[in-house]
Amino acid sequence: MLVHFLLATIACYVVYFLFRVPRAVVICFAAAILCDLDHIFEFWAAYGFTLNPIKFWKVTLSKRNYFKETGKVHLFFHGWEYIIIVMIAGAVTSKYNLAVSFSLGYGLHLLWDQVNFGKHALSYSLLFRLQQDFDLEKIIQKKI
Ligand SMILES: [Zn+2]
User: What are the sequence ranges of the domains in the chain?
Assistant: First the structure.
């Protein structure tokens, strides 16, 4: 989480340097940080619904893994496809600065996750995970 915060800060500095638009900086930061909220859904699927953040952090910081508990990896907010969708939306609406801001913050987050946690080259593709029925073993063992 700290790394994501640092990467988001770097991305936000770049966005501010490029566009000097406060709204673009907010979008960049939100895209870089809020996408990890989907881990809460994975936690709930494995351990049941709770709003107690201490329970979530205890599991997250321990060796327990909610993906292994359910055998599924959904992570609906993690997917390279979102960058393509947002860039197309930015082109269609002529909001390039906002689309680039989102993509920079979100892309750095995803790149970090891909390099450090991606067991498969396509594991951070939402369509690939959907094709594998979000099955952890299929995603890990699938050959390109
Ligand atoms: Zn993430």
Answer: 2-141
